[in-house]
From TrEMBL:
The keyword Transferase is assigned to this record: yes
Family annotation (InterPro entries): Aminotransferase_I/II_large, Kynurenine-oxoglutarate_AT, PyrdxlP-dep_Trfase, PyrdxlP-dep_Trfase_major, PyrdxlP-dep_Trfase_small
Keyword check for Cytoplasm: no
Protein name: Aminotransferase class I/classII large domain-containing protein
Cofactor: pyridoxal 5'-phosphate
Domain of life: Eukaryota
Domain Aminotransferase class I/classII large: 3-322
Positions of transmembrane segments: none
Gene Ontology annotations for the cellular component aspect, listed alphabetically: cytoplasm
Family, similarity comment: Belongs to the class-I pyridoxal-phosphate-dependent aminotransferase family.
Amino acid sequence: EVEPMSEVTVTVGASQALFLTLQALLNPGDEVILLEPAFDLYYGQIRLAGGTAVPVALTHDVEAGEWKLDAEALRAAVTPRTKFIVLNSPHNPTGKAFTKPDMEAIAEVVREHDDLLVISDEVYKYIIHAEGVSHHHFAALPGMFDRTVTISSAGKTFSITGWQAGWCIGPARLIKPIQLLLPYVQFCVSTPMQQALSRVLSLADEPFEGHDSYYKWLSEMYRKKRKLLADGLESAGMKPLRGDGGFFIFADTSDIEVPEAYLRQSTPAAPKMTRDWALCRYLAMEAGVLAIPSSPFFSPQNRDLGGNFVRFAFCKSDETLSLASEKLKEHFG
Ligand SMILES: Cc1ncc(COP(=O)(O)O)c(C=O)c1O
């Protein structure tokens, strides 16, 4: 149960929820811990708020095919200047859904510091496609509601990213400064969007297209789309990592040889060409399939960890995913 007037702010997407949270609660010189790879928007927004991003790398477990939390590295990264840990589950770009033990380990670190807070970015919470995996709210752990700003939006859940309706939820002491800042940035979220969303949120719990609810249908739809793309990537010699949620596949491309010509090129976006950028250009030019390089999800000191990874999106029509798979197979299989 949350108190709508004092514990919720409706924002222009999760992006603005993040922006307002950081602007309202961060002081110049404060540190924000990011678990890397991390959604690239965080870096700029932390800088805009005068803060410093402090990276803590997730560990790539090659055998399990996933990225794991290193709780000791997280603990060691906290300093007296640390204001926030940003937790994003399900995670962009890896698709990892942090487990309950992962979250408990983070909560333990939070409890060790009186002023440490968490931003829990849960925009993909309804898109859990792995069997037997559930989403956990960090703020539901003992004592964590009072330490957490939970951020989400309608964009991913209802495939309406352009509508930009999001929200933050947390204790009144953290939400109040965000509410006070909001009218100085944007008076409010477009009212028709808020009206539409309030209606769709209650409809979404009802049976939909043969499923118990819209959310069940959504997960099922993405489970199928993920398989379609993952199979295509595998047939082209890439290794999709295990992913639990969201609509991205972080794929290990180490078995693909990137031609020298692409490695030698430089572009305004990548003046010092790296393998992941070169590979994405190679995929685009040769197969017409676009992927995102991993570098923007890492701070400079951790970029090498991502060198062999690129991110593919499967929030596309089945026809597009099948065509992409065919083209990848044709060119690289
Ligand atoms: C992890 C994460 N958080 C927040 C956002 C932004 O969400 P919105 O479109 O609601 O601003 C995105 C969008 O890509 C995202 O991947």
